Amino acid sequence: MSNSSRTGLAVAGLSLGTSLNPLNSSMIAVALVVLREDFRLDVATVTWVITAFYLTSAAGQPLMGRLADRFGPRRLFMLGMVLVAVTCALAPFAPNFALLCVARAFMALGTATAYPSAVVMVAALARQANVKSTRPLGRIQMANTSAAAVGPVVGGLLVSLVGWQALFLINVPLSLVAIFVVRRFAPADGGRERGRVSELLRDSDLPGIGAFIGALVLVMMALLNVLPAYRWWLLGGGLLLAVLFAWRELRFSPPFLDLRLLGRNRPLLLVYLGFALFNGVYYFAFFGLPQLLQTAGGYDPGVVGLLMLPLAAISVVGTPFAVRAIDRFGVRRVLIAGVVLLIVASGAMWLLTVSLAVPVVLALTALLGVPYCVVAISSSQGMYVSTRREERGVAAGIFQTCRYLGAITATVLIGIFYGTGVNQANWGLMVFVMLGLGALVLAVSLRWRERRV
Predict the structure, then answer these.
(1) Per residue in 169-189, is it b (16+ CB within 10 Å) or e — as a string?
(2) How confident is the model over 238-264, as a mean pLDDT?
(3) Is 339:438 a contact under the CB 8 Å cutoff?
(4) How many DSSP H helices and E strands does the chain contain?
(5) What is the DSSP letter of 92?
(6) Is the pLDDT of residue 119 over 70?
(7) Exposure of 266 by Cβ count < 10 A (0-12 exposed, 13-18 middle, 19+ buried)?
(8) From the CA atom positions of the chain, what is the Rg in Å?
(9) Which residue, among 396, 390, 4, has the nearest Cα to 185 in the 3D structure?
(10) Which of 41, 148, 273, 275 yields a CA-CA distance of 20 to 30 A from 282?
C-alpha cells in the first residue's frame, strides 16, 4: 500500500474518532425533551446531561493534549476510544439520571483524547504523504465541524426510531472502527518518556493540572448556577485556584501550561478569544433553535433533526472549499469573510420571530452552515500555524476548551432568556445578543495576523 493510501486511511480513522466529541455534544440537543419526560425532570435538571459532558470536555482537552505531547498521540487516541466503547455499551442500562450524567462525563473524557492526538499527528501524516499540513488538518477539522452539524439530524432519527439509549450505543461500533483503523495505518509513536515513576509524576506538574481543572470547573459551575446557594463561593474558589495556577505555572519547570509563552503569543490568544466568542454565537442557535421548534413550533424531534439537515449539508459541502480558499487567500481573509457571514446569518435568524414555517427554517439553517464551516476551519488553521510543533497537543486541547466555554456561555444565556418561556419573542431577544457577540468576533479577527512559529 502506498504512503498516500495509508495516510488517507489514517486520517479517516482519526477523523472518525475526532468526530465523536462534537457529535455527542450536539446529538443530545434533540433528546432533552424526551429525557425530561422519561426521568420526570425539570428544565434546569435535564441540562446536566449537557453540563457534565461540557465540563469534562473543557477541563480534559488540554490535559489530553499534554499527555499526547509527552507519551504519544497514537497510544492516547486508542486508549480514549476504548473508554468510549466500554462506557457507551453500559450507559443505556443506567438506572437513574445521575448515573447517566456520570456516563456522559466518562464518554467526554474518552472522546477528549481524539482531537489533540490527531493534531499532534498532523506533521507526521503530512510528511508520510508528502503533502502540506493543511490537507490532513483540513480533513480532520472537516470531521469535527461536520459531526457537530449533523448531530441533531442523527440524534433526531435515533431518538424517534429507537430512543435516547441509541445516542450511546451508536458510539460503540464507531469507536471500535476508529481503534482498528488508527492502529493499522497511523504512524507509530516515537519513544515515550521513560524514567522512574516518581520523576514522571514530578515532571507532570500534577498540582498545576489540578489547579487548572479545579478553577475551570468551579467557575463554570458558578456560571451555570449549578448550586444557587453557593454560586458566589464557587466563583470565588475558582478565581482563587486560577491565581494559584498562574503562580505555580510561572515558577515550575516544565509547566503544564507555559503562561509566559502564551502571553507572548498574541496571535494564538486572539485565535482562542475569537473562537470562544464564535461558539457563543453558534450555540445560541444550535441549542436554542431545536427547543424553539419543538416547544413553540410543535415539531417532533425527528422532524427537528431534518430541519437542521441543511446546516449539516452545507457544512460538509462547504468545508473543502474553505480549505482551498485558505490555501489560496490565507487564513486571515477567509476568517474575516466567515465572520461577516456569521453576522449576516445571525441577523437573519430574527425572521423566526415572524414564522416557524418549514421553508423559513430550512433556509436559515442552510445560511448558518456557511459561516460555521468557514470560521471553524480557519480558526483551527490559525491555531496550528501560531503554535510550535512540540506544543500543538496542549494548544489543540485549549482550542477545544474554548469551544466548550462558548457553548456553556450560550447554554447559560439560553436558560436565562427561555426562563420566562420558550417562545418567539424571547428568541428575538437572543438574536440581538448573537449580533453583539458576532461584532466582537469581527473585532478580534481584524486584529489577528498570521505568525508562523
Answers:
(1) ebbbebbeebbebbeebbbeb
(2) 83
(3) yes
(4) 21, 0
(5) G
(6) yes
(7) middle
(8) 21
(9) 4
(10) 41
For the chain, first and last CA: distance in Å? 34
Q: Which alpha helices (H) appear in 162-265, and where do they start and end? A: 166-169, 171-185, 197-203, 206-223, 231-249, 259-264
CB-side neighbour CA atoms (13 Å) of 276: 14
Question: How many Cβ atoms sit within 10 Å of the Cβ of residue 78?
Answer: 22
Highest mean pLDDT among 4-13, 105-114, 196-205: 105-114
Q: Cα-flanking dihedrals φ and ψ of residue 202, to 5°? A: -65, -45
pLDDT single digits (tens) 340-365:
999 999 999 999 999 999 999 999 99
The band of 209, judged by pLDDT with boundaries at 50, 70 and 90, is: confident
CA distance 130 to 134: 12
Residue of 22, 20, 7 lying closest to 135 (CA atoms) = 7
The predicted-structure confidence for 51-72, as pLDDT tens digits, reads as follows: 788 778 877 888 888 888 878 8
Instruction: Annotate 411-434 with DSSP letters as a single string.
Output: HHHHHHHGGG-SSHHHHHHHHHHH
Query: In angstroms, rounded to a whole number, what is the distance separating the alpha carbons of residues 64 and 394?
Result: 7
**What is the grid cell recorded at 407?**
457553548
The answer to whether 249 and 256 have CB atoms below 8 angstroms apart is yes
Cα(135)–Cα(320) distance, integer angstroms: 9
Cell numbers that stand for 130 in this block: 508528502
pTM over 0.85: no
Set of cell numbers at residue 350: 430574527
Contacts of 398 by beta carbon, 8 Å cutoff, 6+ apart: 61, 62, 65, 257, 272
- Please work out, in degrees rounded to the nearest 5, the angle formed at the alpha carbon of residue 13 by the alpha carbons of 316 and 193: 130
Q: Which residue has the higher pLDDT, 80 or 316?
A: 80
**Position 1 pLDDT exceeds 80:** no
Residues 60, 398: contact at Cβ < 8 Å? no
Q: For the chain, give the number of residues.
A: 453
pLDDT band at 451 (very low <50, low <70, confident <90, very high): low
CA distance 340 to 346: 10
* Whole-number Cα distances in Å, 391 to 66, 255, 325: 8, 12, 26
Q: Which of 145, 137, 426, 417 is nearest to 278 (CA)?
A: 145
Residue type, 194: R
Q: Of 364 and 228, which is predicted with more confidence?
A: 364
User: Which residues neighbour 10 within 8 Å (Cβ) at sequence distance 6 or greater?
Assistant: 121, 125, 181, 182, 185, 186, 187
